[in-house]
């Protein structure tokens, strides 16, 4: 167990394996359905709920318990994954909190974290709500598109908080590492939202702008006929359901607009170099961009082990965790033994500009 | 044969198969090397030349004749593929024309067509130079990355011209259909360059801007740690060698800047809707973009057969061919029989906005 008394009476011990843990998934679409199927395959006792009766019926055909009400689905659970659409979370959160046991860990999979974290604070749920975001997705939607392997090995952001919430964070980290083989990225909610703006939200805007402009182009059909790798890749997420994309962008509006300004500034530099025929500058700007792209595939990691007191206010632990995620690192292990918690961390090696001159 | 007297004395007949045709590839990098290996595998008599002695040596180890000089490589050939870097083409073209037989068909694989077509006109080579552009590529470079299957089934633009050039166009079309199973897209050089600006060149700018902005971001390492599908896809071509990207953009400068303006206008609309919190407008703009993306994967084609007199000024034939490509269609067959040339064309069905209200 996490050793700090935040777990509910029924929550099994961390490190002792998560088989038999009682989990619920609320909202069994693409992501929620994939979470559900994975938990089921790992031997957890799972229930699923979705507002759509046909989806609940489909879940039952997958040998998953799918009660008629969300209250039944989360009653007596050790952990609940909130996987409904982003705008529904602030309302679902207190409802699920009220219907689940007081020690039940709550988490979500929404693409922005600051707003839902604020909602959790308003409802006094910071001791057991751990904001989460698995970095995976597809253009498809619905339980029929879900797969137990969709999130395997994914980067999965969890937002640790000091105080009793740290225990819930440690326990959930252990579950994600064991069941999903996740790379758990600990981040502050605000840092996540800024990073996600560049890693996901702005790319959706660029894909939409490119595909949208082509739709309006006189030579639209010729453009589509000539579309090879760069256009196909650059517009793939334009195939994402439009409502989902709009919700994601609106949920992180200020940060998306700020990071978009950085991207359009770089685009302006490229266009200026092109307009003035400055081959050297144009090449240098593309080479700089290529270096970032290379880091994506060729990154090396060093492994570090760090431990903290299992009890106390956890302030040092949380600060270290947030710094780890901001530096591009992730957790590969979390073990509570007696009065210590030990983390295994993987950090970029060589370190990025936050640790060293670049 | 094409039946209009433009073929050189040694060029084998169209329709009789292309095995035994004498072909040369000048510039055996990624694209040229792939062309060369494919032609060799199809039973053509091929020679290759590259300015780099190590590349010539590598070609010889692939059982390809690779003479020391470009003049030797193209002497006595029926067709020469010019596959060197874009800025070298205007100089290479007259040199290869002088060293090859007068009836030898010349073509290139450069990513822009208007400039090289103008160079061919200046050198009086319009009767046998057919501007070409296979729509394929990769982030890699060099003969070692080349593969005989790289261009299999690719969209391959050829620019037909009236007069004696039509014969060279027909013959080369037959070769590409037979040897590469290409979808030959006939287009005017200017229309190609406008369509390619949106299908390829602007996507390279967007990928560069996104990757470049991330490289400069404070949370760079966290962004890379979170990068899932949308960022990976959206920056893939930022890994292309920077000099090659710069050459491609500079070779089509005016059109790239014009089409980029259309994309940034759409991006501004998206940003405005986001800034004002207009969920309906933001969703509608993304849905419009998604419709273009859907056309990319779900397009149906109707087959049409059309024939023209084999001789004459070919003005109707060339006009029909250019309209076919502008409408998103491609050729699947080209046969010269007695005094007629018959094309099999595949056209989008239902047609796009050029043929019908959209």
TrEMBL record, chains A, B:
<dbReference type="InterPro" id="IPR046826">
    <property type="entry name" value="PDH_N"/>
</dbReference>
<protein>
    <submittedName>
        <fullName>Prephenate dehydrogenase/arogenate dehydrogenase family protein</fullName>
    </submittedName>
</protein>
<comment type="similarity">
    <text>Belongs to the prephenate/arogenate dehydrogenase family.</text>
</comment>
<dbReference type="InterPro" id="IPR003099">
    <property type="entry name" value="Prephen_DH"/>
</dbReference>
<dbReference type="InterPro" id="IPR036291">
    <property type="entry name" value="NAD(P)-bd_dom_sf"/>
</dbReference>
<dbReference type="Pfam" id="PF02153">
    <property type="entry name" value="PDH_N"/>
</dbReference>
<dbReference type="InterPro" id="IPR050812">
    <property type="entry name" value="Preph/Arog_dehydrog"/>
</dbReference>
<keyword id="KW-0560">Oxidoreductase</keyword>
<dbReference type="InterPro" id="IPR046825">
    <property type="entry name" value="PDH_C"/>
</dbReference>
<feature type="domain" description="Prephenate/arogenate dehydrogenase">
    <location>
        <begin position="21"/>
        <end position="304"/>
    </location>
</feature>
<dbReference type="Pfam" id="PF20463">
    <property type="entry name" value="PDH_C"/>
</dbReference>
<dbReference type="InterPro" id="IPR008927">
    <property type="entry name" value="6-PGluconate_DH-like_C_sf"/>
</dbReference>
């Amino acid at each position: 167990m996490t050793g700090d008394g935040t777990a509910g009476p029924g929550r099994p011990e961390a490190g002792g394996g998560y088989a038999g843990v009682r989990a619920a998934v609320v909202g069994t679409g693409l992501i929620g359905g994939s979470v559900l199927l994975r938990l089921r395959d790992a031997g957890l006792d799972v229930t699923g709920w979705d507002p759509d009766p046909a989806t609940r019926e489909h879940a039952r055909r997958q040998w998953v318990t799918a009660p008629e009400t969300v209250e039944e689905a989360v009653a007596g659970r050790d952990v609940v994954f909130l996987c409904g659409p982003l705008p529904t979370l602030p309302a679902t959160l207190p409802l699920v909190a009220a219907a689940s046991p007081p020690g039940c860990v709550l988490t979500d999979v929404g693409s922005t974290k600051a707003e839902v974290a604020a909602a959790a604070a308003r409802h006094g749920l910071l001791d057991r709500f751990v904001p989460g975001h698995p970095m995976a997705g597809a253009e498809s939607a619905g339980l029929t598109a879900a797969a137990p392997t969709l999130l395997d090995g994914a980067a999965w952001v969890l937002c640790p908080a000091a105080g009793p919430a740290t225990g819930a964070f440690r326990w959930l980290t252990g579950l994600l590492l064991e069941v999903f083989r996740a790379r758990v990225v600990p981040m502050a909610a605000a840092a996540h939202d800024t990073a996600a703006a560049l890693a996901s939200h702005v790319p959706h805007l660029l894909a939409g702008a490119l595909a949208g402009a082509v739709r309006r182009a006189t030579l639209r059909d010729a453009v589509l006929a000539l579309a090879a790798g760069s256009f196909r890749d650059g517009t793939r997420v334009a195939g994402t359901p439009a409502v989902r994309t709009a919700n994601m962008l609106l949920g992180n509006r200020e940060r998306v607009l700020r990071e978009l300004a950085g991207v359009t500034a770089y685009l302006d530099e490229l266009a200026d170099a092109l307009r003035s025929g400055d081959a050297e500058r144009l090449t240098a700007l593309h080479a700089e961009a290529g270096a970032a792209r290379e880091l994506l595939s060729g990154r090396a990691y060093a492994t570090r082990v760090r431990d903290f007191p299992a009890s106390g206010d956890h302030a040092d632990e949380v600060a270290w965790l947030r710094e780890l995620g901001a530096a591009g690192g992730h957790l590969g292990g979390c073990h509570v033994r007696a009065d210590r918690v030990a983390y295994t961390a993987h950090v970029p090696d060589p370190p990025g500009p936050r640790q060293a001159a670049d």
